[in-house]
Specification:
This protein is α/β, with parallel strands linked by helices and 362 residues long. Helix content is 41%, strand content 20%. Keywords: Amino-acid biosynthesis, Branched-chain amino acid biosynthesis, Cytoplasm, Leucine biosynthesis, Magnesium, Manganese, Metal-binding, NAD, Oxidoreductase.
Length: 362
Amino acid sequence: MKKNYRIAVLPGDGIGPEIMQEAVKVLTLVGEREGVTFTCEEGRIGGIAIDTDGTPLPEETLKLAKEADAVLLGAVGGPKWDQNPGHLRPETGLLGIRKGLGLFANLRPATMINSLVDASSLKPEVVSGVDLIVVRELTGGIYFGEKKRYDGPNGEVAEDQCIYHEAEIERIIRVAFDVARKRQKRVVSVDKANVLESSRLWRKVAERVGADYPDVELSHQLVDSCAMQLVRDPKQFDVIVTENMFGDILSDQAAMLTGSIGMLSSASLAAGSFGLYEPVHGSAPDIAGKGIANPLATILSVAMMLRLSLGMDKAADAVEKAVGNVLEAGHRTGDIASDRSKAIGTVEMGQLVRDELSQILN
């Protein structure tokens, strides 16, 4: 294990800087206890970069990320930039950094923490015990296809191309099978093969790759059926693998099974161990600066980074245990509190996690 890691920290917009501050404090504590130095260097991305640099992804930010061992990202976006042209939208910075870093595999776990069962909008018997992960292809499909706007005989016309190459599909399917081998060995590949040609190729490649993993069960679901089943019986799922746009939608739906999108982390991985780690939730500009945002998804993203990119499994386990202990003790931010009057703030939640973590790492 290396003793010094360079981490690119991209706080972004809205609540990003607040939650990132707590996550970096957790990382610093891990470094102190484990004898590791984390050199955290900040860069701008999203709306703040548009305002400051005139682009959602400055060249120096991409360079910083490429030279780092891993990247921590807060959140981007907000109504301030919603009417901007496409190349000046905060989300364009996200797409750009994913492409620029070769981050083709997005892993989004949705695990029900026992103490938060009542926070879900679904019945406890439906969500209790949910433990699934969505593996989303991240650099292909309709988000990266050619986009056109032009005048037609019946008014303005818009086009978005959805293109997938066989190799792109194969590499993400293999990631899903490799993940499943460490879990319950079940993969559901999600497509729209009854309508879309790109989905028919997707299913064909999934079948071919699946033959290389005889120990893992492969099944297929259409995306609309999967969306329904996620609400009806989410415990049937172990690993869901799907294309970019479907994965964007289904992973957010899966996140809400657990009661709050503010609780869930994600990893976007390149070939090898390099990755970008971020909470699933957005920038929540309506609560930015109020000190009430939930930092736990970002802190859990630190745990994913420690495990997947830095090989620090023990420290990752400790961070996750610290979060679990704090929740078991009944501490809640407003988004997961049944009694909002007793909710705690961002800084207090971060401190409680660090207090627990300090004891665990003793």
